[in-house]
Amino acid sequence: CQFSNDVYKQIKGVAMGQPCAVVFAVIYLLQLELDLLHSIYSPNRPLLFIRFIDDIFAIFKTTSDAHTFITLYNKLHDSIKLTYDISTSVTIMDLTVSIIQPLPHTFTLASDIFQKPTNKYLYITPKSYHHPSIFANFITSELRRYRLYCSEDSDYQATKTLFYDRLLSRGYQHSYLPLLFNTPV
Predict the structure, then answer these.
(1) Under a CB-based contact definition with an 8 Å cutoff, are residues 66 and 60 in contact?
(2) Which of 80, 92, 113, 140 is deepest in the core (most CB within 10 A)?
């Protein structure tokens, strides 16, 4: 590319904005990760390892295993470095996922909806020119998503109440919402 009178040539990676860039990066990381996972002694491998583009969620038996994995991962390529949070409760994408240990040597995952403090909640207003079914469908779909991702009923009820109040502030009527909110999801 050229800026003013200077010409720049990219010598590493894929140019941003190219349709294949994300797919290429995902495939490249997958191969690096598979090689890494196969090189780790089996008992020290993650119990769960999930990556969505550049977000990774992993569960390890011990904190030491997690630190070892991160150290090895950061050696895969000189320009790929993990930033991380090792905890029993983390936020990934729109979820907060927590590990609960009901008994020694057992664990359960619990989840709750995470909503960024900067979210403006600019849902479509009831005065927009969408087909009437769109309003009900987006509301019931969001309620289903909340029910699916909230492990605790109290978290679901709190998120549902916030959603109801946000819809009211967008212009939805008290007479319209209870029909949707009281339908089992």
Answers:
(1) yes
(2) 113
